[in-house]
Write a structure and sequence with these properties.
alpha+beta; 13% strand; 3-stranded antiparallel sheet; globular; 6-stranded mixed sheet; 18 helices; 46% helix
Length: 416
């Protein structure tokens, strides 16, 4: 009798230990090479802490940041992933455009949200939160700087470890580094505002301009700094040709002397161009304009209709831990977004080329809302500008008109 009773008690205790059913999360996330391998290692750590949760990262195919049209379709069909890995500039847009994302404030404790508010760098924080409501957590990000071809700099008699301090010096460097063949065609391009890893309109910031007024209005026309920026772009087109563009391949193959790109190149250059000698510098701006850079963050969100939103939010919060972001950086050299993690990786950084870029994180700005639509607008008019078909003022007026129409359609027409 005693033996039978003991067996019943043991069975009851065992049942209590296994009562928490296994939850399987679908994670539309990192699938590219070493990023995916590192993320899988992080997932294993999370699963060890949360043994009742299993994450299938590659269950749904291409990650959401590369094919963003897939997420709205999956939500409409009632089969969204539990976790979607998004570009920061898409996060707020999707949250307000279609209500595609769940506010994390509804899924995580208040103290966790408060920690988000105080411990993230300004740029990534602005991309994934709006008025204290968080629609995603920025996990990693980049920033941008000027990459220099050391051999071409030295051949031109320039210090390859000190880039141009401002726009006027950039112009001097560009002229000195450019070489032409006997027929006048460019053999080596010193620099051009086009072809860099950002929107050409970001040069407005280098001239002291802004895209929006403090009240949120589009402000492209009637701003002298904007006209000066576009006149500068047009001057380069007149001097070096309307199709003159920098590129990563051109820089690495001694066809371009300076190229603006992201911190992603810190690992791409050694892996793809092991013999290429390069250095880095800050982004030049006009004298008196505050230093700046441009970056984009990436991170997880919980879509509307997720089957296991609370468990998904738990993994989202896990990725926000400073030690996890430091681990990610150590494996991928993709930059963290938490202040503590940023401080830790900066202390351990021994490559001066990397430090020059990473030190720009605190002054890094994020791309504007509706960035994908924004690019289509600017490319049309800036191409006409470089071809000499329109003036800087007309280009600004056209951009102003098209962006105002775009914002009207987003804010008013789609709400009806």
């Amino acid at each position: 009798m005693i033996l039978a009773l003991s067996f019943v008690l043991l069975l009851h205790a065992t049942q209590g230990q296994t009562a928490e059913a296994t939850v399987r999360l679908e994670y539309c996330g990192e699938l590219a090479n070493h990023y995916a391998d590192t993320m899988r290692d992080i997932i294993q750590q999370f699963e060890k802490e949360n043994p009742h949760i299993v994450i299938d990262m590659d269950h749904r195919g291409a990650p959401a940041q590369y094919e963003p049209e897939k997420l709205p379709v999956a939500i409409a069909a009632g089969v969204p992933p539990d976790i979607a890995y998004l570009n920061g500039f898409m996060t707020i847009v999707w949250a307000i455009r279609g209500g595609f994302l769940m506010p994390l404030n509804e899924l995580l404790p208040a103290n966790t949200i408060n920690e988000f508010e105080s411990r993230y760098l300004p740029a990534p924080k602005s991309e994934m939160s709006l008025n204290g409501v968080w629609f995603g957590v920025p996990f990693r990000m980049d920033t941008r700087g000027l990459y220099l071809n050391v051999d071409l700099f030295e051949e031109a008699g320039l210090n390859s470890q000190v880039g141009p301090k401002d726009i006027p010096e950039l112009d001097v460097y560009a002229a000195k580094l450019t070489r032409r063949r006997e027929d006048g065609q460019i053999q080596i391009l010193g620099f051009a505002p086009n072809g860099n890893n950002w929107s050409e309109l970001f040069w407005l910031w280098a001239f002291g301009g802004e895209f929006l007024s403090p009240s949120g209005e589009v402000t492209f026309t009637n701003v002298s700094s904007h006209r000066n920026a576009l006149a500068w772009i047009q001057e380069y087109a007149n001097r070096y040709g309307p199709t003159a563009r920098t590129s990563t391949d051109g820089l690495a193959n001694n066809q371009v002397a300076m190229h603006l790109n992201s911190t992603t190149m810190l690992t791409t250059f050694p892996a793809t161009y092991p013999d290429f000698d390069w250095y880095t510098s800050h982004i030049p701006s006009m004298p008196g304009v505050k230093p700046f850079s441009v970056g984009c963050s990436l991170g997880p969100s919980v879509p509307i209709g997720a089957r296991h939103p609370h468990e998904a939010a738990r993994f989202v919060a896990f990725l926000s831990r400073p030690e996890i972001q430091v681990q990610w950086y150590q494996r991928t050299h993709s930059l963290p977004t938490r202040i503590e993690a940023f401080q830790q990786v900066l202390r351990s950084m021994d490559d001066p080329r990397e430090r020059i870029l990473v030190e720009q994180l605190p002054v890094t700005r994020t791309v504007p809302l509706l960035y994908r639509d924004f690019l289509a607008v600017e490319r049309l008019h800036l191409t006409a500008l470089c071809e000499g078909k329109i003036s800087p003022q007309v280009a600004l007026e056209n951009i102003q008109r098209d962006l105002e129409l775009l914002l009207y359609q987003e804010l008013f027409v789609k709400e009806q």
